[in-house]
Structures are given as C-alpha cells and as structure tokens.
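Homework-ish question, so no full write-ups if that breaks the rules, but can someone show me the predicted structure for this set?
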Amino acid sequence: MSEVIDKLKKAILIYDRKTASQMAVKAIEECIDPGEILNAMTETIREIGNGFERGELFLPDLVGAASAMSEAIAIVETNLEKSGKKVDKIGTVVLGTVKGDIHDIGKTMVKAFLVAENFRVIDLGVDVAAEKFIESIQKYKAEILALSALLTTTVAEQRKIIEILKEKGIKNKVKVIIGGAATNQEFADEIGADGYEATAPRAPGLCKRLLTKE
Ligand code: B12
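A: Not a homework solution, just the prediction itself:
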C-alpha cells in the first residue's frame, strides 16, 4: 500500500480531518486511482464499525471518523467529477438515503462514480421522505431512482417508495435501484426493485444496463 494511502487511513482512524483531507489531495496529486482511494477509506470505516460492534469503540468514534472521511471523500468526488468526459449526459439519476437514515458515505460514493461516468445526479441527501423522491423524479425527468439504506429498519422505506410508484401508476417510468449495507439482491427482487449492486463502483454499470433495456 502506498505511503499516502496508509497515512490517509491512519488519519481517519484518529479522526484527524485536516490530515485526512491533505492526504486525499496528495493521493490525487500522486495519480492514485480515485476508486482505490475510496476503497481504502471504506475499509477503514468498516474497521471502525467492527470495533463498534465488538464494543471496543463508541458512537463518538464513528462520528469523528465519518466526519474526517466525509471531507476526504468530497475532495476525491470533486476530482472524479472533473475527470468526467464533457459529453452529453447518459441519463438523470435521483439519489438519496431514505427517510429515518442519515448514513451518507456510501450514497455519496455512488454519486461520485455516477458523475464520473457522465450521469446527471440529483443528490437529495439523507433522511429523504418518499414524497420528495417521487416529486424529484418527476421534476427532473429522471430515468433512474437510486435509494440507499443502511439500517434494517429503514429498508422498509425502499419497499414503500416502490409501492407508491406503483399506486401512482408511474413505476414503469423510472428504474429503481437499491443499495446500502442492509440490502441485498434477494430483498431487491422481493420488493420489485429493478436493480441492486453491493458496491458504488458497480452502480454506473447497473444504470447503463437498465437504460439500454428500455
Ligand atoms: C459510519 C457509520 C455511522 C455514522 C454515519 C455518518 C455518515 N456521515 O454517514 C453515524 C455515527 C452517524 C451512524 C449512526 C448510526 N448508526 Co451507523 N454505522 C456506520 C458504519 C460504521 C459505517 C457505514 C459506512 O459509511 N460504511 C462505508 C460505506 C462506503 O459503505 P455503505 O454505506 O455500505 O455503502 C457501500 C455499499 O453499500 C454501496 N451502496 C450504498 N448505498 C448504495 C445505493 C445504491 C443505489 C447502490 C447501487 C449501492 C449503494 O456502495 C458503497 C460503497 O461501495 C456502519 C457499520 C458498517 N459495517 O457498515 C454502522 C451501521 C450501519 N450503523 C448502525 C447503527 C445501528 C446506527 C445508529 C442507529 C446508532 C445509534 N445507536 O444511534 C445510528 C443511526 C442514525 C440514523 N438514523 O441513520 C448499524 C446498523 C444495524 C442495522 N442492521 O440496522 C451498523 C451496521 C453498525 C452496527 N453493526 O451496529 N453510523
């Protein structure tokens, strides 16, 4: 592992936001693949999550590390956006973390990879109500709705949103994809989602496949 990536991971572990941001900038300057930088950060936050599960770390540790990581992600994200080829957008994706859920790291990574692959992404943020998703897909004429959920309690929102789309008779107008640690392919099939992927770098491929299916 490169020295800069090692320092970036260590900075997140001790929630040193300044060093984490500096190392993200340095990693980009050293032309390390943005995907590799994001994966290293994911690994680190998962390590912290494991410590939390074992009772060795506490909520402030998670918050501190997540905050250091969010700043570093923003830097990589901007860089990925710049690398997006300046051609017509492939399609519009409305993206957000569902109501009741404030986890935003994975969702933001999905956005970064989609933007880099020339999708127009409307990021609604976290804790987004079903109505807001529906309103936005209509307002932005989105082809894809991407829903993130990390809690076993909030995956129910993904199901609810698909049900509302069906009730309104507009389910066939948009492809719904889901993701986040609390979801899987089986659940996606059960709730009638059009697609699922386990990782952010795979989201653009999934969206492209769904758009060409039309
Ligand atoms: C960081 C973190 C937090 C931070 C979030 C900060 C932030 N800005 O996001 C804070 C401290 C705020 C937090 C709060 C809570 N958390 Co939390 N958190 C985590 C932790 C450690 C990491 C999550 C993360 O960012 N992972 C890294 C990212 C990159 O991974 P990811 O989100 O899974 O995303 C990847 C894929 O899933 C995919 N993806 C994600 N979204 C989408 C969407 C689409 C469409 C696609 C295709 C792909 C995709 O792409 C990503 C990258 O490849 C996890 C543990 C874990 N192992 O996941 C617990 C975890 C998710 N949290 C948990 C809990 C319980 C909570 C709290 C309820 C704690 C509490 N007691 O208050 C609160 C909930 C608050 C709320 N209402 O949402 C539990 C959930 C348990 C469950 N099964 O429901 C976990 C699993 C920890 C645990 N084992 O206890 N948390």
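Now go work out the reasoning yourself. Hint: The beta strands are 92-97, 120-123, 144-148, 175-179, 195-196.
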